[in-house]
Each structure stands twice: as C-alpha cells, then as structure tokens.
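Lecture 7 notes. Example A: sequence first, then its structure tokens.
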Amino acid sequence: MPLLWALRDELGVRGPKYGCGIGVCHACTSHLDGKEVLPCVTPVSDAVDKEVTTIEGLADGDVLHPVQQAWIDEDVSQCGYCQPGQIMAAVALLKRIPDPTDEDIDTIENVCRCGTYPRIRRAIKAAAKAMSQG
C-alpha cells in the first residue's frame, strides 16, 4: 500500500494531496526522517521506524514554520490544493540550500495549476531570509 493511502485513509491525515498517484505532480510531498518523499509512490513499509512529517506537523504548536508564514505573507495560495506539497518541498530545499538561487528554486518539481510560481519564489526567498535571522 502506498504511504499516501495509509496517511489519508487509515490515519485521517489530509495535508498530503492525491494529485496523480504516479509521482509526477508532487502534491503529496512529505518527509521521512527529514528527507523529501512522494507518499503516492512510497510503500508504507518504507516508513517503518521512521519519522513521517506532513504539513500538519510542520508548525511548532501555534507558531508557523517560517515557510508557512512566508506563504501567508506573500499570499501564495489561490486554490490551495498543491500548497501543502509545495511548502514541504520548499522546507526540504531550504534544509539543503539555506540561501537558494532562482535556479535552485526551479529544481522543485511540484506542479501548481494556478501558476503561482512567482509568489512561490518570493515566499521561499523570504523564508530563507527569516530562517537565516533566527
């Protein structure tokens, strides 16, 4: 069984979205032990004894993760469907590259049908700045 169905159907975790089911759209992007994964193509057995983090686990209580806050500040969302996956991909990118260039940001493969890419880019750069300041 793919991890996505275990999360959504068995655990009621609705943040990771079903978009394509074949690892193309990245709407389901989540983290296993801090690394970006696509639950729609990740067997649930791969998550055994690993920490699974979805958008629901990103905030620290009532304090949003800097990427989540930047998404709000930059008014990124339109329909919002892909945004949990976009945010999780951005968090993974900023872990690897704390001060990403436009080219680094362009390596994120998440699909946004609303075309909010310029706002996504601004939000990632704003989050990087906020994270570098503590």
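Example B, a different protein, same format:
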Amino acid sequence: MKAGAPALANAASRQPMLAERAARLHAQVARGVFASRAQRALAATLVEFDAGLKDLLAAAPSAEVRETYRMLQLLWQDYRPHVARTALGEAPEKLGERSEEVVWIAAKGARLLRDPAADAQTARVRLAGEARFQSQRIARIHFFTAWIARSDKREAELATASRDFRRALDALLAAPADASGAAAELQLAENQSGFLAQAGRDLKSARDSVPGLEAVAKTCDNILEVMDRVAALYESVPA
C-alpha cells in the first residue's frame, strides 16, 4: 500500500467491497452463472482481502482502529473457508449472515480511518470506493435473491444500495474538473449504471433469471473495473 491519505482511503474502502464481492461470487458459482470465471475471481478476491487486511493492520494509526481490524481478522478467519467452499457449502441464509458481519466490521474500519479534514482528492477516492462497494452489494443482493427467494428485507437492502450508489456517482460526476483525467471513466460508469438498472428491472419480471443475472454480473464487474481506475487516478493526483 502506498503512503498518504488517498491511498489509505482507497485501501480501507476495498475491504467491505471485497467481502461483498466474495459472497456474490460464491452465489454466482452456486447459480451456475459464468461459473468457471466466477470461481477464479472468487479465489483472487480472497487473496486480495488477505493482503489488504494485513496492510491495514500494519497501518492502523490508533488502538481503536487496530482493534477493529483485529476483530475483522477473526471474523474473516471464520468466514473465509465457508465462502471459499462453493461445492456443498453451507446454507445460503447462514452464508449471508456471516457475510454481513464481515462487511459491517470492514466498513467500520473504513469509517474510523475517515479524516473530517481530508482534502478533495481523498474525498473523491472515498466516493469512488463507495460506488465500487455499492456496485458489488447490488450484485450480491440480486444473486442471493435468485438463490434463496425474494423478500421485503432484500428489496429494502437493494433500494438502499442503489440509492447510495447513485448518490456517490452523482457526487463524482458533479465534482469540479481536476487534473486526474477521471471524467471519461465516470461517463463509462454512468453508462454501465443504466445497464445495471435495466438488468434489475428485467429480473423482477423474468421467468428465467439466468440472462438477468448474467447482465448483472457483467455490468457490476465493469463498474468495479471503472471505479478502480477512477480511485487510482484520484490517488495519483499530486497533493
């Protein structure tokens, strides 16, 4: 991990996203949607989470932050084997509960590392991280809905995640132009967000969920790639 507030914000915001992504990829394998690709991506996601957690523990600036990431480490050690085992794994409801615990603590760590006096560069990195996180949360909810069943709770979670994704992306689109060169990438994310919203609408009325889930997987992966590039561009702007 590079030094500096933008790099720390980028690293911290990746952990809750990776936890959501791992759960979504597990469900994607279980549903047979681009299963081989999802299995490879799941393995890479777990390795990336391991490395990111190690870096954040080493960089923890206070006892409270260090304790939070130690708690995350314990939860992750318990959760990791379950999310990694896609063949004859545990019940999806239980996996979802474990996932939410990991996501919550990872997000708490990112909040604790948030500096109210952060500069615009770091604030934009955080917004990119929020959009990145919500894209994977949206995907995870769609896949768990198809895997388990539709419920009022998941519908409410989806509405909240979609709203928060939109809010973060709108804030980035409305930000004054800078030297990062992120504007073109943000337009790509805006285009993909339309495809994602349409895929969600299609899933609600489809008898066969596979085409809609394929569209969700593709668009959320595209958004993730774009927002990774956006965060890196903001991170690289000289202070």
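Note on Example B: DSSP finds eight helices and no strands in the chain. The two ends are 17 Å apart (CA to CA).
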